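wait is this the right file?? whatever heres the structure
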């Protein structure tokens, strides 16, 4: 995976003050066993290796986003790294107020048409977007499509479900990719889904999962932060199969390990680390970069306890799904009921 290079500031003067990276996490916190925690790990490790100062702050809620970004600016961070779609508006406002700083946001694209909040004017450069913001995106639908093919092949009931968090683009890509992959393998499969407007509600995630299970679902996909963890626990308790998200949740959430046939992985730690390294070397520029199956920015986690339980025919379905996606990436998205 090669980060976009050149163009934003160039190499730094070695005699200059020690540069600093400041990271702002969303309300999932630094121990969410997933997106936030692994983004933090990757960035922090890369900063240490590069000899950069590093600090981070957890946002207790939406009201804290702008305040926490401003805190990092006030503390002298040269690179402000925000994690998650929810910080998009706060990041844009801060980037406009501080054109001398570079900003990175994970999971939100600043492109013409959605680069800035509606209340901000004169936002775009002639090329479109923000001139001092790098957007890091993932093709979540691609590995989710593979997981959907696996789920459909493994399902005995012909019913699967998605217990999801906020209905925002990254989560929607997860769900649609999963359901489309399943429907390619079994066109008549029943695919329940529910978006829960909270990434920190394990109880609701568990309740929704139990509802799907009561309606016959025997494989659950749970892209919802802590909310999704509730779904994974419900699957384990009911003796059903589950698919994790963001990181290898067999390792990060062993409480549900026996249910996990795989996880849909976004290599956020790797990408965060590459981004900080590129900044340290003066190679980071503004714009959008999407990580996909083709560059191993996303993928499926190992099958772990299910390694010997998954039939060869289902492994072949996953391999065939991967080949379809690499040949035609648009196959993963579409209207899903």
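ok assuming it is, sequence goes like this
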């Amino acid at each position: 995976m090669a980060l976009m290079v050149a163009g934003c500031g160039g190499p730094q003067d070695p005699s200059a003050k020690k540069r600093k990276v400041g990271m702002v996490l969303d309300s999932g916190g630094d121990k969410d066993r997933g997106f936030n925690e692994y983004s933090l790990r990757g960035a922090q490790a890369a900063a240490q290796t590069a000899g950069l100062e590093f600090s981070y702050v957890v946002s207790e809620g939406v009201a804290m986003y702008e305040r926490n970004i401003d805190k990092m600016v006030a503390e002298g961070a040269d690179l402000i790294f925000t994690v998650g779609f929810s910080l998009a508006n706060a990041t844009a406002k801060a980037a406009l107020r501080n054109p001398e700083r570079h900003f990175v946001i994970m999971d939100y694209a600043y492109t013409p048409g959605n680069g800035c909040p509606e209340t901000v004017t004169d936002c775009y450069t002639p090329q479109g977007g923000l001139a001092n913001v790098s957007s890091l995106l993932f093709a979540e639908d691609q590995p989710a499509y593979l997981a959907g093919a696996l789920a459909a092949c493994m399902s005995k009931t012909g019913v699967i479900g998605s217990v999801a968090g906020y209905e925002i683009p990254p989560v929607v890509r997860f769900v649609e990719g999963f359901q489309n992959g399943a429907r390619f393998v079994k066109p008549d499969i029943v695919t329940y889904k529910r978006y829960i407007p909270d990434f920190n509600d394990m109880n609701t995630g568990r309740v929704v999962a139990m509802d799907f299970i009561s309606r016959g679902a025997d494989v659950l996909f749970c892209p919802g932060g802590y909310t999704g963890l509730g779904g994974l626990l419900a699957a384990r308790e009911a003796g059903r199969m589950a698919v994790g998200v963001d990181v290898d949740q067999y390792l990060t959430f062993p409480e549900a390990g026996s249910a996990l046939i795989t996880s849909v992985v976004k290599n956020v730690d790797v990408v965060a680390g590459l981004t900080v390294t590129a900044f340290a070397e003066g190679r980071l520029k503004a714009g959008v970069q999407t990580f996909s199956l083709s560059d191993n920015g996303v993928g499926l986690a190992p099958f772990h306890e299910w390694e010997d339980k998954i039939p060869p025919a289902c492994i072949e379905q996953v391999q065939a799904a991967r080949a379809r996606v690499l040949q035609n990436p648009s196959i993963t998205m579409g209207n899903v009921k």
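The longest helix spans residues 169-185. so i think its the right one actually
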